[in-house]
Write a structure and sequence with these properties.
Helices cover 82% and strands 0% of the residues. The protein is mainly alpha-helical. It folds into two domains: 92 residues; 44 residues, no CATH class. The protein is elongated and about 75 Å long.
């Protein structure tokens, strides 16, 4: 099995190389066409030079056509490989296990990123106020009477 994978990995690299080559040729083709158009617009350019520029662009266009044909025949084989691999994965995997994993991940994300709604904010403020009130009451209970030297009416004690 591993040798088939290596074979198709190498095959995919070759397909990528051909696609990259096609991209470079297409860019060169555009430049050649642009150059031929500019030469045609120059009054001093000879018709022979313009025709030569067009011929170069046509030659490169023919090479591009060959590359396109090769890619079309190659991609069918590679796409068949990918579809076969996807079908095999679909048959071999247990969908219930995957669905359970997805559900658990969604629940985890929802619980950790849940923004506070209006009701949640109000409830949170209420809890904060209740905690503040409780801590004030605790502080009042812990206070000892301090002898200030005055009685309750403000007169000095002896």
């Amino acid at each position: 099995m591993e040798s088939y994978r290596e074979l198709f990995d190498a095959y995919f690299i070759e397909v990528n190389n051909i696609a990259d080559l096609l991209s470079k040729y297409v860019n060169s083709y555009r430049l050649l066409i642009g150059t031929a158009g500019e030469l045609n617009g120059i009054a001093l350019a000879r018709k022979k030079e313009v025709r030569a520029a067009i011929d170069r662009a046509n030659q490169l266009g023919e090479i591009i056509d060959v590359l396109l044909d090769a890619i079309q025949s190659i991609e069918i084989c590679y796409l068949n490989y990918i579809m076969l691999k996807a079908d095999l994965i679909a048959v071999k995997t247990q969908k219930n296990v995957i669905l359970t994993e997805v559900d658990n991940e969604l629940l985890f994300q929802n619980s950790s990123k849940r923004p506070l709604g209006n009701n949640d904010r109000r409830e949170s403020r209420r809890e904060d106020r209740n905690e503040d009130d409780a801590s004030e009451n605790d502080n009042d209970d812990n206070l000892e009477e301090i002898d200030t030297g005055f009685d309750d009416e403000g007169d000095e004690t002896e």
